[in-house]
Amino acid sequence: MGKIVKTYEVPVDERKVRVNIVDGDDLVKLYKVKSPPISAATQSILESVKEDMLKETKIGAQEVFDARAIERLKKEFTEKSDKIISKKLPALSPAVKKTLVSHLISDMIGLGDLEIPLADPELEEIVVNTASEPSWVYHKKFGWLKTNIIIPSEKQVQNYASIIARRVGRQITTLEPLLDAHLVTGDRANATLFPVSTKGNTITIRKFRRKPWTITDFIANETLTTEIAAFMWLVIQYELNMIIAGGTSSGKAFLLNTLMPFIQPNHRIISIEDTRELQLPDFLHWVPLTSRLPNPEGKGEVSMLDLMVNSLRMRPDRIVVGEIRRGPQAEVLFEAMHTGHSVYATLHADTAEQVVRRMTNPPINIPSVMLEALHLIVVQYRDRRKGIRKTYQVAELLPAGEIEEKRKAKISILYRLKPSGVISAHNPCVRVFDILRMHTGMTDNEIISDMKEKMKVLSYMVKNSINDVNEVGRTIAQYYSDKDSLMKKIKGK
Fold first, then answer.
1. What is the pLDDT of residue 103?
2. Is residue 15 part of a domain?
3. pTM above 0.90, yes or no
4. CATH of the domain at 415
5. Residue 57 — very low, low, confident or very high, per pLDDT cuts 50/70/90?
6. What pLDDT is stored for residue 36 in this prediction?
7. Would strands 423-425 and 410-417 be described as parallel, antiparallel, or unpaired?
8. pLDDT for the residue 16
9. Does residue 252 sit within a domain?
């Protein structure tokens, strides 16, 4: 066995599983799960317990689709399996009994041994490439690691994929061998079946943080600065339009989520996503919509475009779109901007200039004149070597020139990430300040004073570790409803 570089425990239902990160003989580090071995005789008894449990318990549609119902079902299964195991194996110690109960719950309601990495907060991705090879995980600190978790058969991999599919009302078969879905925990799952994936059946699970990121988390870990956060708060408060861009896993969706509490509590928010990722404060006036793929007969599809068109009939104050991918989506989005709706969305692009190029060229290809409705572009960046995410650029779109050949959107970088890792001001703000002066009557000094006031609120939340999404939302809501009292509290009066 190689050198252990890190060891920690992962709580999985009623048991704690030890995980060792090991420098192995292979070219990559190993993610080793240490669980007590279960004898063949005990495994046989567990199978009979499982049969008894299935006879006694009926699982309805609510339990399949509702995360809270799944938790209730887990509790019920835990109590029943504890009684049955106590009858069949009365000599077991409480600790061993807990371990066996946890194994049963993982097998009956979850994804077997995959529940261990799923419960590990240090992991971002869990991958099964085939039953004939160990599974892999992506660790926040160590990157890709090979595990000692092997799914016993291709049939079992397909069974886990089918469990995921059923929970979102879909199926995965040889006729429909691709699945893109989400678990009840909110994690995103993808699955493919042989022979589409030639080595065997696959499952890929992208894990999402159980506790949503907040703007105070982003400031505290230096993803962005208090000044940039206050500037984006200003932009959102006064209903300007924004696109958040970046590469894969750069934190686009996370940043979008952290900015939503800046919306006033009395504004109606409609969010549109392929997979539900946004987690907003529970008191906001928010209606989340998610798209739906067609059934095996090709019927019942509800696309992002369908939802975007429909959202305009729901009297929204703010429209939040998970990701822009195609021209028709972008056209509806920009029509919404031009008709007075506040719109926020994400886009795959590495720079502000690339956002403009992607938007004005195929396959999105919207006219440059429509792009003028967009006010701000924020670009996220992921440093893969250091494993950190940062705000790379904050840019405003300047109005196009009057002459036809000059009618192209111009980018002005307001803040940028320097090679030293510091995010600093780059150009003075022109267009956003112009709009704020026009619509609010504030002078430049008053706008800057407003930003500084917001910076005090943000610094107060960071200093006092206010980083729960509801607590952050309520502090910002108090800023809108009773600013004087909040500022007095911040000043310590």
1. 74
2. no
3. no
4. 3.40.50.300
5. low
6. 67
7. antiparallel
8. 85
9. yes
- For the stretch 433-491, pLDDT in tens is 999 999 999 999 999 999 999 999 999 999 999 999 999 999 999 999 999 999 999 99
Domain range holding 427? 215-491
Report the number of distinct structural domains present in the chain. 1
